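Problem: given the chain below (175 residues), write out its structure.
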Amino acid sequence: MVEQIREIAETYLGNLTKDSNLSKKVKSACTLDNCLEIYLSQTDSGKGRIQAQSTSGIIVGIIKSRDWSLCEGDVFITKSGKLLLIHLQEQRLMVLSFTEPVENHAIELVHLGHVLGNHHWPIIIKKNKIYIQLIIDAAIIEATIAKFKIPGLKIDYELRSPQEHFHFSHHSHHS
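Solution.
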């Protein structure tokens, strides 16, 4: 059975961490049971159409532009007049690091980057580590990386708080 959306939110009011009046308005709405709260993955925060279940069990549809991502503390007002408070979940990332110098394996690394891009798996490189956003099952990404047999390549995982949001490069094919 498909859940029916009970609330639609497309009017953005701001972020309560940057607007003290909005913060007071949200606190007041929550005490009056006129506030919904949802927890989104950081991946979902960039989508234009988002469906999520609030902490009180109500299904909410959010409509926004894809050119910006939702942040912790963003607030919308629903069509029925309820406030909607956005929370972001921690994000689990795959982290590739190297226990050996990589200079001898430049070709393999370029090929690996090409394959990751062709799969549309968002990556970012920071401080000699490659971070991969887990938009699919980690085992599939691990199996793809293992095919390259790059000596010294180590796969780990890290949790990133919403405040440490990475801006991943998204690969696309434009005509």
